[in-house]
Structures are given as structure tokens and as C-alpha cells.
Amino acid sequence: MNLAIAGAAPYELPVSEWVLSNAIQTPDGRQETVGGIYVFWFVADGEETPNHDQFMRWLALDLLRKAVWQRWTYVSYFSVCEPARRTRRCAHGKSDCGVRAGVSIAAGPALNG
Q: How many whole angstroms from its chain centre is CA 38?
């Protein structure tokens, strides 16, 4: 999935998306299905990926090739969605998430050894 990031130079941010649901029992004894959407991605200086394996590869390659332990951040967002309203509600969640993704992440100097 891609999030549309607005701004001076708009772009599409690839993210991982998990759609979740679970049946719960309400206090009055009824069974009800609740759900949500969870999106996440990994960010470093000049690199971003929704894929955990790719993040681990880049982490190792930076360490082996450049002797730099790259600082990575795990960015995530969760929004509750009723399953019957998931399409409309989660579209709002994705939009809200896109706004949050536009926040820049400052990194300090590289750590060597």
C-alpha cells in the first residue's frame, strides 16, 4: 500500500498494512466484531522501506560496507475501524496517517563502534 504525502514535493510512501478484526463479547452478552487498520514502515537517513527484511539487509550492508551503524526508526499508526465501515473509515485513517508521515525525522551523527 502507498500513502500519498502532500507538501512542496508530494510523493507516494510505501507502507505495510495489516487489517485486523476480532470477535468480542459486549457487557450485555452480544457478540460483536471489532477491527482496525495498522500501518508501519522503517525510516533512516536517505532510506525508507515497508519491508522488515529489507530494513535488516540495509542495516547489515551499511555496517559491512561503510562501517556505519545506521539509525533506523519504526513508524506506526493504528486506527480503529468497524468492519462494516472499514473502507470509508480506513480511508480517513490512511489520510490522517499520511499527514503524520510528513513529519521529518532528525538523525544525529553516525555512530562508529
A: 7
d(CA 67, CA 98) in angstroms, rounded, equals: 33
Distance CA 113, CA 69 (A): 8
Is 20:40 a contact under the CB 8 Å cutoff? no
**Contact (CB, 8 A) for 63 and 17:** no
Instruction: State the DSSP H helix or E strand holding residue 33, giving kind and residue range, or none if neither.
Output: strand 31-44
Q: Of all residues in the chain, what percent carry a pLDDT higher than 70?
A: 72
Question: What's residue 85's pLDDT?
Answer: 58
How far apart, in whole angstroms, are the C-alpha atoms of residue 92 and residue 9? 22
> Coil, strand or helix: which one is 95?
helix
* 69 DSSP assignment: B
Q: Record the cell numbers describing residue 75, joined without a space.
A: 513508524
Please report the pLDDT score of residue 90 as a whole number: 47
The domains of the chain are located at 2-101
Q: What's residue 87's pLDDT?
A: 52
**pLDDT value at residue 74:** 93
